[in-house]
Design a protein that fits this description.
It is built from 13 helices and twelve strands. The two termini are 46 Å apart.
């Protein structure tokens, strides 16, 4: 990404982040009387917490340590709190606006207006805290999504294939050793013949991955035919070459605009992430180039991190196409946005003769919180003629 564009992008995001926090603060601080010590303590605590996300983004890469780990956790949680606080504040302001014009609230609200504002503040904090905690618990409990699919092609040898798929693991400070171990144990319990990791394996910065030796967990994945992966946008954000090298050192075969014949039974193709030009200035190969020269009588399985241009995938005769990236919005109501952007935000769809599956992902980005969707590991039992 060009330096000038990056600076402009970061400046805009930081400005929006600051304005949203100021809007929340300007409403929340009204719960505390002017001149009170509680108001001073609240102001200090609010802006310290609000600054942790920005501070963590600055310090996490050059200074991976316990301190940056703590502020990364606080800042990431604050993103979820910020989202639902802004929704609550907008709702309250709409109520106040309608009251200004229609005077429909009972007079009891105005008997002690300062007390009313304090009660509204306490209820709002309790409600948002409950939602975020529930989302945190939900994000820690992954499910196994099972599919049975058939490809109408003949293959030599065994007529079935057990595939385990995980996408958007986001290994790093938040998705660390404990969850990585749980991922590997779950994958191994499914006894896969092949394991496919569909991008965003690491969460931008490689430093906490190396510090926590998370590659050692991945190296314990057991699979007859191996573990294969493609790059995602987060590998590119953090530096794709070091990330790819690290993953390959721990037993993962990276497919970067390449196709291989696996076990003389099926082709497995993997594309570079769609954002490659933005970070390197180099285009990724077209799907036609990736699949050039293969024997189409064999089944063709494709991994591509971002679920765009599904019609082109179907036109190329791919039999099974696997994606991630969307998180199915991760936080409600963002799932409505991902549904509008992508043909498939999450789940399975058959287009022509091509089976498509978009995973909601195993990990989280930003807040370690999921609402309106579940993290998953996908088990596909594939049969052939």
């Amino acid at each position: 990404m060009k330096t000038g564009i990056f600076i402009v992008f970061v400046s805009i995001v930081t400005l929006i982040y600051g304005l949203v926090n100021f809007y929340i603060f300007s409403r929340a601080v009204q719960a505390f009387p002017h001149g009170s010590s509680a108001r001073i303590w609240f102001t200090t605590a609010f802006w310290l917490i609000a600054s942790t996300f920005v501070l963590a983004r600055i310090l996490e890469r050059p200074l991976p340590c316990e301190f940056t780990g703590i502020i990364t956790w606080i800042g990431s949680f604050w993103l979820a709190f910020m989202l639902y606080f802004i929704m609550v504040v907008i709702l309250i302001d709409l109520v106040r606006l309608s009251e200004y014009f229609f005077h429909w609230l009972p007079s009891v609200f105005y008997l002690d207006y300062q007390k009313t504002k304090t009660i509204v503040f306490i209820v709002s904090v309790a409600l948002v805290s409950f939602v975020v905690i529930a989302g945190f618990i939900n994000a820690r409990i992954s499910r196994i999504k099972e599919l049975e699919l058939h490809i109408d092609k003949k293959v030599p040898g065994e007529k079935s294939l057990t595939i385990v798929i995980a996408s958007d693991i986001h290994l790093g400070t938040l998705i660390a050793r404990r969850k990585a171990t749980r991922l590997v144990e779950t994958i191994n319990s499914l006894k896969p013949e092949i394991v496919l990791l569909v991008g965003d394996i690491v969460d931008e910065d490689l430093a906490p991955v190396i510090k926590n030796d998370l590659g050692n967990s991945l190296s314990r994945i057991q699979s007859k035919l191996g573990v294969f992966a493609v790059t995602g946008n987060h590998e590119y954000i953090g530096g794709v070459e070091p990330a790819v090298k690290y993953l390959q050192q721990h037993g993962i075969t990276m497919l970067r605009d390449t196709t291989i014949l696996v076990d003389q039974r099926f082709y497995l193709a993997g594309r570079e992430d769609r954002d490659r030009p933005r970070f390197t200035g180099k285009n990724r190969a077209t799907l036609e180039e990736v699949l050039k020269g293969i024997d189409r009588s064999y089944p063709v399985i494709l991994m591509d991190h971002q679920p765009f241009s599904l019609n082109k995938t179907e036109a190329q005769g791919v039999d099974l196409s696997l994606f991630g990236h969307t998180h199915h919005g991760q936080l409600w109501p963002f799932n409505y946005i991902t549904k509008a952007i992508y043909d498939i935000s999450w789940g399975y769809k058959l287009i022509g003769k091509t089976h498509f599956y978009v995973s909601s992902g195993f990990g989280t980005w930003g807040p370690p919180v999921r609402l309106g969707n579940r993290p998953e590991i996908v088990l596909i039992k594939l049969t052939f003629n």
